[in-house]
Design brief:
Radius of gyration of chain B: 21 Å
Shape of chain A: globular
Low-confidence stretches of chain B: none
Oligomer: heterodimer
Largest interface: A-B, 52 and 55 residues
Strand content of chain B: under 5%
Structural class of chain B: mainly alpha
Number of helices of chain B: 19
Mean pLDDT of chain A: 80
Strand order of the largest sheet of chain A: 1-2
Number of helices of chain A: 26
Number of strands of chain A: 2
Largest sheet of chain B: 2 strands, antiparallel
Structural class of chain A: mainly alpha
Order of helices and strands of chain A: HHEEHHHHHHHHHHHHHHHHHHHHHHHH
């Protein structure tokens, strides 16, 4: 009964968009915020209802599928607008709505007094709507619709402060870079439609199951094209360049879109098409390699940043890299678990950072923070929980998820791969320490603090508790058969390079190293805060400059070039390039479109005669 | 002497009766608030007419006046389309008629024009069609020059009048030749092998030429940019869509009613006009700096795409054409609605450059405009994509491969000028551009509504297309 009304999940935020968008023009902020948060809250309540319904069924039958209507039917290919709720999409829905709900509440205070208050909440609700469409879609086309929709909202919200040039530039950059990934996605959809005759996830899986001799190369090509889309959306190397700039958006937006939900869509998509990946296992190492390279690289880049939000942004890129590693190891449930855990603790870290920035009157430089721990305990305690989860300290959520990924990579790709992954984890601890140093040591800022109110700190407390409790999904320890994996019920990759004893030993070793690094580095960062940037680990090993040289400047040039090219070359070039014809036509029409009525009449007459001639020719008149 | 009186069933003509009465009554309105009253009355009349055709009452369909008038399901569909276009165009006109002491007559004239289109749509006889075309044309000549303060307006009106008279003469001559060949001016009175196929072909060619004038098909299109530019924006919006719908209804009737010798050139005639319109319209639009002139050429090109449906009548041509018309009305009038909201009294002289930085000044209006441009360019997820999709598919199904190739090529060309508008709105800084006038809430609301409708036709295309398909036998 409940299952038939799956559409209600996306419908509620859409209703919020309509109500606030059409009726809210003269409403007070409070009412707008209540409508927007309320719509997401109701959707969350509905989602919990669906979760209960799913859990009440036996494990094999936990799926609710609804077909709303047929969108397009052309020959054998039929595209329906249909939703699918299975444990995989349920996990995503819960993350989107739970974190989304808290961020809506948080934003009500954070955005208070902003002239664009209503626009902000309309965009935010619209984002939640599209994200739910993306997640619930039962086929590639509807996923793509949601995919483009969240991209649009992201673009609108990054450039929310459109009076700031940097914000507009960042929005534009995100837009352009994402088009590259989307192009791959689109090609992937077309190829899938051609090769499988369906774009439904279930249909593709059925084709692969029914036809064992299905060409692996085709499956691999589809998977790789979709992977390109995932790389763009999830900001993986080399299409990651838009995410750090996206921090120009309001901080709650960074928390929701650029940490907890949208940027993880790529990981979700790869888990969705896991039958394809299983069919073409040659793609998996590519995914793992891209993920690992991104994880390491972005962790280094995070170290080189001074801006608290940019550290978090690079950290997000790095952590999503770990999720890709998990998928590349065939450990879908570990990847999804890390996604859920990361959604919680990174959302928390962003929100706490927002509270800090708010308290310091817009200060984002880590070098000018410090000693905030004692002054704002309602922020610093949740922040500490988030940091411990990020660094992967037992018993916080990050420990369970990251350990599962590292252990799986050892089994699948060997010790060297594991070592690189572990190095990334150490780097994570280093930049976590850097973040933490804002709260320790001596007071680093002059002037008084604007202490955050309860509307800001309540979501922090809730998320902080979750960052601790969510680790329970990773129990029991040192098995693949965790609670979360049992719920998700996805195929587990084959591994097992050693017994649980070896895994436990490795995990303990990792934990000791990470805690030691975290502890030592926090003290050191707190001491050397005032030192100029190069003192910090040589400015992230000069990665920033290298990065600037390698990516930012070429990209800026590319952006300049593409704008100039699109505007000047392509548009004018098309005009000139269609050249001879266009110019001749232009001259002719200049002569003809002279404004002289007799010319126009002559054209009319000539046309009439031409038609008569055609008629006579056909009817045998001559 | 016995005179057989034709059977007359006036109930069938109820919508037309309402339009005529309201139009006549509006001409007598006087007083300070006449303008607003006229607008409300005219829109109510058009809306009632639309609803009566959309949800037919018993007796709404049927033939009367001895077969001169025949409302079938297809006619009702086209009546809905013309009413929709007129309704939207009137909503756009509030701004421009507000300051005119004769502003109320404007709406009366629009209703008369709408009445003429109704007659064109349901007539089954060339002479009655001619009557409808003249009822349509005369008010439009006046409306085109309604803004007496603008030189371009008067110039455009006179041009339109002269050329319109010329095209009427062509139509009458064609009717005479048709009568000579068929012995009747009725469209049902043709045998499969007429006595004089050559005469019939010549007559039909002239009729098609005159209809081509109404749908701005190349080479009968040249009046369009000048007239649109000079006319009030609401009139330009009306001109760009409603007469096209009526003329296509007539063309469909001609194409469907008279198969056989002397008419077999019609598919080719339409195909040639389609190809020429797509090429000339799209290429000429590339060079335009004036928004309304750009839309005029874009309308020429869009008319070309729609003409592709006529050679494919044996297949899915008719529903594809009707679907295209529906989407075209939504997106093109939407573009005009945006023009009205940002024009601020500039009217037809609005430049594309005037839209620069619109995204930061009026984000919703800019977004709506982006939807219309993307849809006109034929990109998903808007209705424009599916309009082209169904049209190209219908034409391909009937073997018009070269026409489809040309259409696809020209669609790529059109991307440049449609997306340039989007680029101007989103990519350029606002160089202290003109302050956006407050007001025009009716046009703004209409733009929002039409943007949603344009998206909806892209979200529910199969449903709408099948609904339209049921209309055609």
């Amino acid at each position: 009964m409940l299952s038939r009304s799956l559409w209600i999940l996306p419908a509620l935020p859409a209703l919020g968009v309509l109500v606030n968008g059409l009726l809210g023009t003269s409403w007070r902020e409070r009412r707008i915020a209540v409508v927007a948060s309320g719509s997401v809250g109701l959707a969350l309540a509905a989602a919990v209802g669906f979760l209960a319904e799913l859990l009440s069924r036996p494990p094999g039958e936990r799926r609710i599928a609804v077909r709303l209507y047929r969108w397009l039917s052309e020959g054998p290919l039929a595209v329906d607008v249909g939703f699918l709720l299975d444990p995989l999409s349920m996990a995503m829905v819960l993350v989107v709505l739970f974190v989304g709900f808290l961020i809506h509440i948080y934003s009500a205070d954070y955005m208070r007094g902003d002239p664009g208050f209503r626009r902000y909440f309309v965009c935010l609700n619209l984002f939640v709507f599209f994200m739910l469409v993306l997640v619930l879609a039962d086929n590639l086309v509807v996923t793509f619709a949601g995919w483009e929709g969240v991209g649009l909202c992201s673009y609108l919200l990054i450039g929310f402060h459109h009076e700031r040039k940097r914000a507009c530039d960042a929005g534009r950059k995100a837009f352009v870079v994402n088009r590259i990934g989307d192009f791959g996605f689109l090609l992937g959809i077309l190829l899938a439609a051609g090769a499988f005759g369906t774009v439904r996830y279930g249909g593709i899986a059925a084709v692969l199951e029914a036809d064992p001799s299905f060409p692996t190369a085709v499956a691999a090509a589809v998977a790789l094209l979709l992977f390109v889309g995932a790389v763009g959306k999830s900001a993986q190397f080399p299409l990651h360049v838009w995410l750090p700039d996206a921090m120009e958006g309001p901080t709650p937006v960074s928390a929701l879109i650029h940490a907890a939900t949208m940027v993880n869509a790529g990981v979700y998509l790869l888990c969705r098409i896991s039958p394809l990946l299983e069919k073409a296992p040659a793609v998996l190492p590519v995914i793992a390699a891209v993920g690992l390279a991104t994880a390491l690289y972005a962790a280094l880049a995070a170290l080189g940043q001074r801006d608290i939000k940019r550290v978090l942004a690079y950290s997000t890129v790095s952590q999503i890299g770990y999720m890709f590693v998990a998928v590349g190891c065939g450990l879908y449930s570990a990847g999804m678990f890390h996604l859920v855990a990361h959604g919680i603790f990174k959302g928390l870290l962003f929100l706490a950072a927002g509270a800090v920035i708010h308290a310091l009157g817009g200060e984002q430089d880590l070098g000018r923070m410090g000693g905030l721990g004692k002054e704002m305990p309602a922020v610093s305690l949740p922040f500490l929980a988030g940091i411990l989860a990020l660094a992967g300290v037992f018993p916080f959520a990050g420990f369970f998820s990251k350990d599962a990924i590292l252990w799986g990579s050892l089994g699948r790709y060997g010790a060297a791969f594991w070592l690189a992954g572990f190095a990334g984890a150490v780097l994570t601890a280093l930049y976590s320490a850097k973040l933490l140093s804002a709260f320790t040591g001596r007071k680093g800022h002059p002037g008084p603090l604007h202490r955050p109110g309860p509307v800001l700190t309540m979501p922090l407390a809730v998320l902080g508790a979750c960052a601790l409790l969510a680790g329970a999904g990773g129990l029991p320890l040192f098995t693949e058969d965790t609670l979360f994996a049992r719920f998700l019920d996805m195929p587990a990759g084959a591994h097992g390079a050693g017994g649980p004893a070896l895994e436990a030993a490795l995990a303990a070793g990792q934990l000791i190293v990470i805690v030691a690094v975290l502890f030592a580095a926090t003290r050191r960062f707190a001491r050397s805060r005032k030192a100029p940037s190069p003192a910090f680990l040589a400015d992230g090993f000069g990665i920033d400059r290298l990065y600037g040289l390698l990516f930012v400047r070429p990209l800026a040039a590319l952006a300049r070039f593409s704008f100039a090219a699109v505007e000047r070359r392509v548009v004018d070039g098309a005009v000139n390039g269609l050249g001879a014809l266009s110019m001749a036509l232009g001259r002719a029409s200049a002569r003809f479109q002279s404004g002289m009525v007799r010319r126009y009449a002559a054209s009319l007459a000539a046309g009439a005669f031409a038609l008569i001639g055609l008629g006579l020719y056909f009817s045998g008149g001559f | 002497m016995n005179i057989a009186l034709p059977e007359v069933d006036l109930a069938t003509l109820l919508p037309e009766g309402i339009l005529l009465t309201t139009a006549a009554a509006i001409l007598f309105l006087r007083g300070a608030r006449a303008n607003g009253t006229a607008l409300a009355a005219a829109m109510a009349a058009a809306a009632v007419s639309l609803l009566l055709s959309l949800f037919p009452y018993p007796g709404a369909a049927g033939g009367t006046f001895d077969g001169l008038v025949g409302k079938d399901a297809a006619a009702l569909l086209f009546l809905v389309l013309t009413d929709l276009a007129a309704l939207a165009a009137m909503a756009l006109s509030r701004q421009e008629t507000g300051g005119d002491e004769n502003g109320e007559t404007y709406y009366g004239l629009v209703l008369f024009a709408l009445l003429g289109m109704h007659v064109m749509v349901f007539a089954r006889d060339l002479l009655v069609i001619f009557l409808g075309m003249e009822i349509l044309a005369l008010p439009l000549y006046v409306l085109a020059g309604f803004d007496r303060g603008r030189k371009e307006g008067m110039e455009g009106s006179v041009k339109y009048f002269l050329l319109g008279g010329f095209s009427s003469a062509l139509f009458l001559l064609g009717t005479a030749l048709y009568y000579g060949a068929a012995g009747t001016t009725g469209m049902g009175g043709l045998s499969a092998s007429p006595a004089a196929p050559v005469l019939l072909a010549a007559g039909l060619a002239l009729v098609v030429a005159a209809l081509g004038f109404k749908i701005t098909a190349v080479p009968f299109h040249m009046w369009a940019p000048d007239v649109y530019e000079g006319a009030p924006l609401g009139v330009a919006a009306l001109l760009s869509a409603a007469p096209k719908a009526a003329a296509f209804a007539v063309l469909l009737r001609i194409g469907l009613a008279v198969p056989g010798a002397g008419t077999d050139f019609l598919p080719w005639a339409c195909a040639v006009m389609a190809g020429a319109s797509m090429a000339v319209g799209n290429l000429a639009a590339l060079r335009q700096e004036n928004l309304v002139r750009m839309l005029a050429y874009s309308g020429v090109a869009q008319g070309g795409y729609m003409l592709m449906g006529l050679p494919a009548l044996a297949g899915d041509g008719s529903p594809a054409l009707a679907f295209y018309l529906l989407v075209y009305i939504l997106m093109n009038l939407g573009a005009f609605a945006v023009a009205v909201t940002v024009a601020g009294g500039k009217g037809g002289s609005l430049k594309i450059g005037d839209l620069s930085g619109l995204a930061s000044r009026r984000p919703l209006v800019a977004f709506a405009m982006a939807v219309f441009m993307v849809s006109l360019a034929g990109l998903p997820p808007t209705g424009g994509f599916f309009a082209k999709f169904y049209m190209f598919k219908a034409a391909l199904g009937e073997g018009w491969l070269f026409l489809v190739l040309l259409a696809v090529g020209m669609t790529v060309v059109s991307l440049f000028y449609y997306l340039r508008v989007v680029a101007v709105m989103y990519m350029t800084e606002d160089k202290g551009g003109r302050a956006v006038p407050a007001g025009a809430p009716l046009a703004g609301g209409l733009a929002a509504l039409l943007a949603l409708a344009t998206l909806a036709t892209g979200i529910l295309p199969s449903w709408i297309f099948q609904g339209i398909g049921r209309v055609f036998p």
